[in-house]
């Protein structure tokens, strides 16, 4: 009863890059009311709407990580402000906060956005009222997010209880002796402890009531003898017989109006806020792998001569890509909107919505056709979040399908959500096929599907070596069929690019254009994504080592092209030695850049003219007839040259670059380097790890990796 009289407001801040942190913050905001709290929610960039310097209530922060461990763009101004070295160490001594960081352990600086803000707040005297949570998108954010939110309410109750205790003590301070004995403190602690325990029981009771008050469809799904395994659409005990804890129903906040009028869709450049976009033609395409290779790698060349687009070797750039045309048409058909694809859509916020601070999503144009929105604006391949599944429950008429969707978004069905939706890359289209009685409205899709993100690629050329050209390399991503998703798919961007350049790759199958017999090809819209660190050493005399198996070799081709041109232009300069460690499955199937049409064995050319000093290769799937089997992976080859690696890094202060797959390669390479440092320096592993950390901080051990 005492707690009900307390002021129970807390400040809720989120910093998001792609919408994940915002969605989680909104979930906290929704649950807060159920638990008797009032959450004052703001994007962390809205610094005119809150003031941490004067904030007296608890603060909850949800923050993601972007790039190579940076806070999201929306948090840059906030981070810059709290990094101010002139702030005193007790600047936030009055502040109590809890922080939930989002990240991906596939990357080196896991949750670094949240860790950075957490550290800065601590250094300025702020205190935790609740332990920091670090959620990993690699295994599923919900594994940490859900229990962290569950525990938040008790932690907040304890904060308000302590505040009440302090207020009571200060109001009675005149009646209390100035020389208090130890006994009253012990009594106070006992009373507080018992009240906190009561709150725990109270909280558990409240949760039970929440569960019982939910509108659940209680049906017995009795499995047949041949159908005892769960699947996307089928459940078995204990989940099928459980009372479920399901998320609160998200408030709808958008309304959609159709207009049968004529006009033009917005230019793609209006969808991008990161800078200038350039529409450039694809002038060449080469398949770098043989037809029987496990993966198909393509090299594309873009003509940027007529633009002001500039880049350095090691930079990345982004391509604005559309969703697959067939999937868009299929979605329109299932939604019953095939005839309205070319209608213009007006999206507005509902006047009576209960969603606080509801605004039209910035990635939805004010005026465009429905087909344009589904093609260029919404990530229709996104794995549906549990909140979306919860909303889909209300659009499903079949009792069994409704129950299964409830299970998949419930706590009891968490492992099945991971197994049948997350791990299988199931998207909205798959769900609508699996649950045919589910008929969501268009506004629900716009509310829950995230923005279609541009895809970024490492540059594989040098503007100095090939003026006016930009090359890049990629594997065509393949998603094989699985029981939860019976159709195979290609990656959104790589599949689109492969279709776009098919006339260049297979000219005999294509219709030539009218100007000279060359197949017509498309254009792509690109914008810059500079990499501030993954560049050649400023001093050309410094040696460097490159590790790039598979398409990880891509930026190093640009490095070597640039180095070759510099050597030609500055014959009097000293240039440091260069090492390239490359690996692939088969020497005769996917040895990239070994024999590439117009490139004619570019790697061999680099070796012969001295641009590349050492080339070390390995082939993981080729059989060997030698008595001692050759190393299979780049990390194994690196170990064979331990003394050279140590010399370059320690004695000659060289650079070490790694590009490619994070999980299966980059971690193995860093382990190999640690082992080399340990042996060559004759120190223990911990000390060797510290040396590698120092190299990272000095920007001499650099990674460009992906999951």
Write a structural description.
The protein is an alpha/beta fold and 707 residues long. Among the domains are: 8-163, Flavodoxin domain (Rossmann fold, 3-Layer(aba) Sandwich); 254-272 and 322-448, NADPH-cytochrome p450 Reductase, Chain A, domain 3, CATH 1.20.990.10; 544-705, Nucleotide-binding domain of ferredoxin-NADP reductase (FNR) module (Rossmann fold, 3-Layer(aba) Sandwich). Helices cover 34% and strands 17% of the residues. Strands 1, 2, 3, 4, 5 and 6 form a six-stranded parallel β-sheet that branches. Strand 4 (96-103), helix 3 and strand 5 form a beta-alpha-beta unit. Helix 17 runs parallel beside helix 19 (662-681) and helix 18 packs across helix 19. Mean pLDDT is 86; it is low at 1-6 and 176-226. Forms a multiprotein complex with MMACHC, MMADHC and MTR. It comes from Cuculus canorus (Common cuckoo). One of its GO terms (biological process) is methionine biosynthetic process. GO terms for molecular function: [methionine synthase] reductase (NADPH) activity; flavin adenine dinucleotide binding; FMN binding.
